[in-house]
Amino acid sequence: MNFLEERILKDGIVKEGNVLKVDSFLNHQMDIELFNKIGEEFKKRFEGKEINKILTIEASGIGIACIVAQHFNVPVVFAKKSKSINLEGEMYVAEVESFTHKCKNNVIVSKKFLNPEDKVLIIDDFLANGCALQGLIHIVQSAGATVEGIGIVIEKGFQNGGTIIRNLGFQLESLAIVDSMDAENGTINFRKQ
Ligand code: 5GP
């Protein structure tokens, strides 16, 4: 069991509706020592990739991406959620359905901060159905930039996002993959990696 799986077992709470709550160390209170280990691990897993930018999505991706970025010495760009409809022109836009809030948002990145020569590592906290990731991939590709890899802290392997993204051919690295979890008795089972 790796450091993250241990922490999830210790402090994660399984909620109804396939939601894993990790707000004591990842999503609300943030354990920066843990984030540093996450950064170290992504650095190892994407060894040899030429990465010059990290892209994430607000809000919970930002803290993680910033600490990970210190291990790659690159800037972080985060996609902003926006309700505004008149966004074309200066912005790259993708529509993303939120798994946790059950609503649709446009996510936007200014054209100033993504260029065709960018080699991007996408970072996010969770992967469920893959909607957030597909939005971010769309934004990178709209800019003519390259997705070099995708780093996820917790993948819920019983939802289909991981399969969709891997089938698209991307290097997707998830530090913990939850294969099943049960809200009634609180059990969490991880995929062997
Ligand atoms: P997806 O777009 O892959 O369906 O969902 C990914 C996004 O939903 C992540 O950015 C994350 O913020 C949120 N999310 C999905 N599942 C969970 C979960 O079980 N727990 C928490 N805390 N966030 C989740």
Summarize the entry for a quick read.
With 193 residues, the chain is α/β, with parallel strands linked by helices. Helices cover 28% and strands 34% of the residues.
Question: What are the segments in which pLDDT stays under 50 over at least 5 consecutive residues?
Answer: none
Please tally the helical runs, counting DSSP H or I stretches of 4 or more residues. Answer: 5
Distance between the ends: 9 Å
Reading side by side through the largest sheet, how are the strands ordered?
5-6-4-3-7-8-9-10
Morphology call? globular
What portion of residues is helical? Answer: 25-40%
Order of helices and strands: HEEHEHEEEEHEHEE
Radius of gyration equals 16 Å
Description:
The longest helix is centred in the N-terminal third of the chain and has 14 residues, at 32-45. Helices cover 28% and strands 34% of the residues. The chain contains 5 helices and 10 strands, in the order αββαβαββββαβαββ. Helix 2 (32-45) packs across helix 3 (60-72). The mean pLDDT is 95. The protein is of the alpha/beta class and 193 residues long. Helix 4 links the parallel strand 7 (119-127) and strand 8 (146-156). The structure holds guanosine-5'-monophosphate. The site of guanosine-5'-monophosphate has 19 residues, from strand 2, strand 7 and helix 4.
